[in-house]
Predict the structure.
Amino acid sequence: MLGFLRLSGKFACAAFLIALVGDLTGTAAQRVAILDFSSTVSKPRKHPPKPFPPGTMLGGRPGGMTSGKLIVSVLSMDKSEYSPEDEINYTLEVRVAGAETVKLPTVINLADLEPDDPDVDLNYEAIEIWLGFFEESHERYISVPLLRLYGSEDMPWSEIELKPGMSVELRGKAKLKRLDPESPTDSEGRRFDAPYMGSTEDLPKGEVLVSATCWRGDKFSYKGSTHFEYPGSFVPEEMSTVVYGKKITLLAVPDH
């Protein structure tokens, strides 16, 4: 398994954990849905939560992680070479890692889950999927956010139940750019929270490997009585990482 590490909101050296993954993408799974977000328009939240008063913070992500329950892999990318700021069109597969049934969030805009009344509570969870581009030497890498999806147990339509042997195909597009660690939002304004993602100061160049990575398990509660929102106590899952079968070429930024 290969992961990327970002500490204290700033870029840090990568910590690469390498293991034999096996032919994860070679095992056939029953596809139960195709979710295409290629043309989805980002929406602002209906009721942005109030900031906490100075010195006050409710909830928080606990330390540690549990075993990952989903495997995300790249099925295809639209080009064999990209320049910084290029758009990436991709197709992914999400499937269950073990023998346990897992619910996959499917809503790309949190506004679609929010009630019209700002005084009504909302409980939801999120999943993030990233692409990692890295040199074989592991000296330089960049993690590119693809999707942040939301779901709620209170709204069954917002999740897909995946049993062992089932898969979902995801399609979308993203910009090949690094996030600001102090304000980690993508080109559509979606915020990403995975603490183990980042980039080296110098971007990778030339022929690189690509991996798909999944961060799942964060839960949040919006309280209508106070309009505060805080993360729950659910322990996130270990990231699943699968290396794409084809190498990609990253072009250097052209001189002006």
